[in-house]
């Protein structure tokens, strides 16, 4: 009974919070998030109150985070890949219309009216703008008040008062203290508005574009040019578009660009090829080294093998990002260890990270250093599971060491190691950290393209999304993410057919 | 006979020689950096492993001139909280998958298996926008915050860990809990009092592997976190050294020694369990 009361209390508190939050969301018109909150709350109520949902109570905490940060992102990423979401296409259409209709231009010739401020340095009482249709008085917050209701002191009779309501006129230096307040003023005036144009003048400005809802178009007020709402931006007959545009659905356009737009097409081909090379060389070479060392350590005659093993796995025990930064230091062309040694002994300098070949060489060398301990450990495990009789039988048949390796050791360990190699391939294929910390995908190979010589697909996507200097091509990055996703799915598909994992699930274990 | 003996010695020598060669290859970067960290000459051009005049000046400068202390604490905090929560939630989920039979169980397992094969970073743009959205309503958990990053890490680790722990729970005999259930314990009590203590070794392994993974994560942290003081170690050390190999090598070395030291200690303390976890669990056999 006590637990039921507790349940009801906790649920009521949660539901009250959810209702409050839902109202907030409805107010903002954020329907997707509102739907998620309502579904989530309903789900929690069901979980706590229904006996049938008992197993789900154990699953729910993990499931919530899995759905929020993996399932939804994957689906959302697919959606973004079909839009044009990128720098210049971030806002919604309504926001774009608002931004563009607030753009202004000066009539020609420009209309300027002198203004004077009254008050003190600390406090602005108000300003007087001397327009051609008489003086106008405004408060600092922009409200207009009739000049008749104020006490104007103009002793010299030049039309410019020395004081207003007893507040002295401010010098231009004193006006400067109120610059930020004045700058915000936008006073509706005739067809447009008045705003601060210099420290002594207000200018008359007109809206450059007017929005016509029935035509869904913007009209340039100076030229009369019409910009119709196209896909993602307003475009005129002659093809001239207005920035910013808005975020909208573009179908397969992003994917098509990777195969048709020469700049992206070349980049994609180059990056993909190196990405495969990178994963293949890393896995094959580190496996070769790891296996060789495993065979070396597997000899029972080796007295210190436990110690050797512990020392050989040090690269695996260090955080990879630190190791990569250390290796990057060694590869440094001017002050790096390798060029110091090569320079002093042989008088040569290798452009390690600046040259395409050497940059790739350096990356693979570093990755082999980082991964061979893993390969060594799994090979050791596999070697120990090979029955000794096989070797004895082979020795009787007169097979030499090489023959024994190729016909017994290698085929047998591959049975258990092949899936691990595929897993390692998939991991290396997307190993962003090494690539990014070592070279950031450089050296550059094509001017105008973000994809460098050592970029892998994932680092290329990262550049498209987050390297700010050239704008954020979020949607292109999302599309590339989906492409990588398909590649990983292919690799995993191959891997699953070689392991029992899927079978286990289907048998219901 | 004499010939065979000599050949045995030659082979033993060769094997040990090759092993030490490999060990030199494995250890020289770490040894070099350890030496550099005590070398007051703050430049890569000092190519000696053991410094002539060892001093702690690099360590002093690391803590006084950079935000290293903040990076280190941030990283331990983020990785620690994410890993603890992940272990707890995954153990709960794994228990349900292992012990209950319910509708959707098979589909759920299949989903876990599929989800854990895809790196979360493929959806980086979506994660970025989701955090932006969360930050709009809950500023303390959005983009640029540690809770936001923990949220992402936690979500990304659920799939694999639940799957991995379920496999372990399956090997714990049911008879232990069943007698407890007969005695009137609830399922949750059986889970808490019987399964969790029995599974302690696997919980420790999952915790440590997750901790080290989060500790070294770069991609997601780099677009979630903004500002030097909020960085993790990976971001902080990268920005510290990247364009400054000429003039900050010594300070960086000190940071690398501390940053790697913690992980190295954990790794060797639990060496055998971690090794079997990493090599056996990466692809379930």
Describe this structure in words.
The complex is a heterodimer of chains A (509) and B (285). Chain A has 509 residues and is of the alpha+beta class. Chain A folds into three domains: 80 residues, Up-down Bundle (Methane Monooxygenase Hydroxylase, Chain G, domain 1), CATH 1.20.58.370; 104 residues, Beta Barrel (Periplasmic binding protein-like II), CATH 2.40.430.10; 248 residues, MetI-like (MetI-like fold), CATH 1.10.3720.10. Helices cover 56% and strands 12% of the residues of chain A. Chain A has 19 helices and 15 strands. In chain A, strands 1, 2, 3, 4, 5, 9, 10 and 11 form an eight-stranded antiparallel β-sheet that branches. In chain A, helix 13 crosses helix 15 and helix 17 runs antiparallel to helix 18. The radius of gyration of chain A is 36 Å and the shape is elongated. The mean pLDDT of chain A is 88. Chain B is mainly α and 285 residues long. Chain B has a single domain, classed as Orthogonal Bundle (MetI-like fold), CATH 1.10.3720.10. Helix content of chain B is 74%, strand content 0%. In chain B, helix 1 packs across helix 12 and helix 3 packs antiparallel against helix 11. The longest helix of chain B is centred in the first third of the chain and has 36 residues. Chain B is globular, with a radius of gyration of 24 Å. The C terminus of chain B is likely disordered.
Quickly list its features.
heterodimer; A: 509 residues; alpha+beta; Methane Monooxygenase Hydroxylase, Chain G, domain 1; Periplasmic binding protein-like II; MetI-like fold; eight-stranded antiparallel beta sheet; four-stranded antiparallel beta sheet; 19 helices; B: 285 residues; mainly alpha; 74% helix; globular
């Amino acid at each position: 009974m006590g637990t039921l009361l507790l349940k009801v209390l906790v649920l009521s508190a949660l539901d009250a919070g959810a209702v409050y939050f839902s109202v907030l969301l409805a107010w903002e018109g954020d329907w997707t998030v509102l739907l998620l909150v309502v579904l989530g709350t309903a789900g929690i109520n069901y979980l706590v109150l229904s006996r049938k949902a008992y197993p789900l109570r154990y699953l729910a905490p993990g499931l919530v985070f899995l759905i929020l940060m993996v399932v939804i992102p994957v689906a959302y990423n697919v959606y973004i890949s079909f839009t044009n979401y990128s720098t210049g296409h971030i806002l919604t259409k309504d926001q774009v219309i608002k931004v563009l209709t607030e753009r202004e231009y000066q009539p020609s010739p420009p209309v300027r009216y002198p203004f004077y401020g009254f008050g003190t340095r600390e406090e602005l009482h108000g300003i007087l703008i001397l327009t051609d249709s008489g003086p106008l008085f405004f408060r600092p917050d922009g409200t207009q008040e009739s000049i008749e209701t104020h006490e104007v002191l103009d002793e010299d009779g030049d039309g410019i008062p020395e004081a207003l309501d007893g507040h002295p006129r401010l010098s231009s230096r004193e006006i400067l203290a109120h610059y930020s307040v004045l700058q915000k003023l936008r006073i509706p005036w005739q067809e447009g508005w008045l705003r601060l144009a210099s420290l002594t003048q207000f200018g008359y400005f007109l809206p450059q574009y007017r929005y016509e809802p029935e035509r869904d178009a913007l009209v340039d007020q100076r030229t009369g040019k019409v910009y119709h709402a196209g896909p993602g931006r307003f475009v005129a007959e002659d093809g001239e578009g207005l920035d910013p545009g808005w975020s909208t659905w573009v179908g397969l356009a992003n994917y098509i660009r990777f195969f048709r737009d020469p700049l992206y097409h070349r980049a994609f081909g180059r990056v993909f090829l190196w990405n495969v090379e990178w994963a293949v060389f890393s896995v094959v070479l580190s496996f070769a080294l790891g296996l060789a060392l495993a065979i070396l350590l597997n000899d029972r005659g080796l007295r210190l093998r436990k110690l050797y093993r512990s020392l050989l796995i040090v690269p695996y025990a260090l955080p990879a990002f630190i190791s990569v930064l250390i290796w990057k230091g060694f590869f440094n062309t001017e002050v790096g260890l390798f060029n110091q040694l090569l320079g002093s002994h042989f008088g040569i300098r290798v452009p390690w990270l600046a040259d395409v070949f050497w940059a790739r060489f350096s990356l693979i060398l570093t990755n082999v250093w980082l991964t061979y301990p893993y390969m060594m450990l799994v090979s050791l495990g596999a070697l120990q599971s090979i029955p000794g009789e096989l070797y004895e039988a082979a020795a009787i048949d007169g097979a030499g060491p090489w023959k024994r390796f190729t016909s017994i050791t290698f085929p047998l360990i591959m049975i258990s190691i092949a899936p691990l190699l595929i897993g390692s391939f998939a991991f290396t294929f997307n190993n962003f950290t090494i690539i990014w910390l070592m070279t950031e995908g450089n050296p550059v190979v094509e001017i105008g393209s973000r994809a460098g010589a050592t970029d892998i697909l994932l680092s290329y996507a990262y550049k498209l999304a987050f390297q700010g200097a050239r704008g954020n091509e979020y949607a292109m990055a999302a599309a590339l993410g989906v492409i990588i996703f398909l590649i990983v799915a292919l690799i995993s598909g191959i891997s699953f057919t070689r392991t029992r994992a899927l079978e286990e699930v289907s048998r219901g274990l | 006979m004499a010939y065979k003996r000599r050949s045995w010695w030659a082979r033993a020598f060769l094997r040990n020689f090759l092993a030490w060669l490999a060990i030199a290859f494995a250890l020289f970067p770490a040894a070099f950096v350890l030496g550099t960290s005590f070398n007051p000459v703050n430049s890569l051009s000092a190519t000696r492993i053991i410094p002539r005049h060892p001093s702690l000046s690099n360590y002093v400068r690391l803590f006084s001139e950079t935000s290293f202390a903040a990076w280190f604490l941030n990283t331990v905090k983020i990785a620690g909280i994410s890993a603890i929560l992940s272990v707890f939630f995954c153990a709960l989920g794994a228990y349900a998958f292992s012990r209950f039979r319910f509708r959707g169980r098979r589909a759920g397992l299949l989903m876990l298996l599929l989800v854990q094969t895809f790196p979360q970073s493929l959806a980086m743009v979506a994660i970025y926008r989701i955090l932006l959205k969360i930050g709009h309503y809950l500023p303390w958990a959005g983009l640029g915050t540690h809770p936001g990053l923990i949220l992402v890490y936690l979500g990304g680790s659920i799939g694999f860990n639940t799957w991995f722990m379920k496999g372990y729970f399956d090997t714990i005999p049911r008879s232990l809990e069943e007698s407890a259930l007969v005695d009137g314990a609830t399922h949750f009590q059986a889970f808490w009092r019987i399964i969790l203590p029995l599974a302690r070794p696997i919980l420790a392994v999952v915790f440590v592997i997750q901790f080290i993974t989060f500790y070294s994560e770069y991609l997601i942290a780099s677009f979630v976190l903004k500002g030097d003081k909020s960085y993790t170690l990976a971001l902080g050390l990268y920005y510290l050294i990247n364009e400054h190999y000429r003039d900050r090598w010594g300070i960086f070395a000190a940071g690398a020694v501390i940053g790697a030291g913690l992980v190295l200690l954990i790794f060797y303390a639990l060496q055998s369990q971690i090794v079997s976890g990493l090599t056996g669990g990466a692809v379930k056999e």
